[in-house]
Write a structure and sequence with these properties.
The protein has helices spanning 3-32, 42-62, 68-76, 84-109, 111-134, 154-159, 168-171, 181-186, 196-208, 215-234, 240-269. It is mainly alpha-helical and 275 residues long. Helix 4 (84-109) crosses helix 5 (111-134) and helix 9 runs antiparallel to helix 10 (215-234). The longest helix is centred in the N-terminal third of the chain and has 30 residues, at 3-32. The termini are close together.
Length: 275
């Protein structure tokens, strides 16, 4: 390899990684939004998603842990509604900003570990798609809504009364909302199981933790997934079981990524370099 080629290789690799990330996200968005509230007839999709929500509630009830409504009710009763709009912004931005930042930081600081963690993130995202497609789940914030607003069918809601959660994005609008024209028509409102917010935030914490030395920074990193779980509960976007499923998905993805990464790195080491 010439000196010029050697100088260009890292730059080309950056662009290749960007292509991988964009391609994965486009596939994720396309597949995710073909199911749930964006697929099939509204009544059919709503009924299935509501039925799955009832299943989750029953499981949590059996575990004496269906406390999401109590947490949200307590928090919104605080002065200024607890500054819930801050959590609305956190929900819509940190999910992407922190994850992308951690991926870029890992690429620069620990290139030897980059492929493993990048593949772990990719497997996590792809496995989540299986969950969204096979287990369409109505999030708590929609349980009290009308069918036209992606809530449960009226007859099903009358037969199975559930607590009225507050859709914080609708009640306390921020700069974005699920009810905006574009998101309302193309976004899958029932892509809740597993919680990718939980999986991605935990992934980011695991990636960033070894790269910092200051104790206070480590504390902030450790708090990120905890804050994310609190956020998805207090904004009624997820049940706590969704968060647990997100952690399981991340763990399984890491186990899949290890042999996958080893295979591709071994294959690449056997590929002759261009002259």
């Amino acid at each position: 390899m010439t000196a010029v080629a050697a100088e260009k290789a890292p730059r080309l690799r950056v662009w290749r990684e960007l292509v991988y990330i964009v391609a994965l996200y486009l596939v994720y968005s396309s597949v995710r939004n073909r199911f749930g509230s964006s697929g099939g007839t509204a009544g059919h999709a709503n009924g299935i998603a509501f039925g799955h929500a009832l299943d989750v509630i029953r499981i949590e009830d059996d575990l004496h842990s269906f406390w999401e409504w109590h947490v949200q009710d307590w928090y919104l009763s605080l002065p200024g509604h607890g500054g819930i709009q801050i959590w609305n912004v956190f929900y819509g931005t940190a999910h992407f900003v922190v994850t992308i930042g951690a991926l870029a930081w890992l690429f620069k600081r620990r290139p030897a570990e980059y492929s493993l963690w990048r593949n772990t993130l990719a497997f996590t995202t792809l496995l989540a798609l299986i969950g969204f497609a096979s287990f369409s789940l109505m999030p708590p914030r929609l349980l009290g809504e009308t069918p036209e607003r992606f809530g449960p069918p009226a007859a099903a809601r009358a037969e199975h009364p559930v607590p009225d959660f507050v859709d914080t994005l609708a009640r306390f609008p921020t700069f974005w909302s699920f009810d905006s024209g574009g998101l309302k028509t193309i976004s899958n409102q029932y892509a809740a199981m597993p919680s990718l917010h939980t999986a991605w935030s935990t992934w980011a914490a695991l990636v960033m933790w070894p790269m910092v030395r200051r104790r206070w920074v480590k504390v902030l990193i450790a708090l990120h997934p905890l804050a994310t779980v609190f956020c998805i509960i207090v904004t009624a976007n997820h049940f706590w079981l969704d968060a647990l499923a997100g952690l399981v998905t991340l763990g399984l993805s890491y186990l899949l990524a290890r042999p996958f990464t080893r295979y591709w790195e071994n294959r690449r080491s056997l590929t002759p370099l261009p002259v």
